[in-house]
Specification:
Largest sheet: none
Distance between the termini: 47 Å
Oligomer: single chain
Length: 85
């Protein structure tokens, strides 16, 4: 199946993201779908050719959430922060 945009592909994977988020919710309730997507996109999927939807679903379910957590924290360290008014 062909996807017209990255957003369309992301949206088609929401079911897998929801499963993973339910699996990690108690300990990592601050991790969002987009965090898992960005981690896998940058660290795994970019290196893969002819990636299938089933492989992507498998990657989402099997991703090491500790690595996603570290990835997210490294990203947050680089962000500018502001006083909340």
């Amino acid at each position: 199946m062909e996807y017209k945009s990255e957003e369309e592909l992301f949206n088609s994977l929401r079911g897998a993201f929801n499963v993973k988020l339910r699996m990690i919710n108690e300990e990592y309730n601050y991790i969002k779908m987009v965090d898992i997507w960005n981690y896998l996109k940058i660290n795994k999927w970019i290196k893969t050719k002819n990636l299938s939807i089933s492989e992507m679903v498998n990657d989402i379910i099997d991703v090491d959430i500790n690595k996603v957590d570290l990835f997210l924290k490294e990203h947050i360290k680089k962000e500018e922060r502001f006083i909340i008014e």
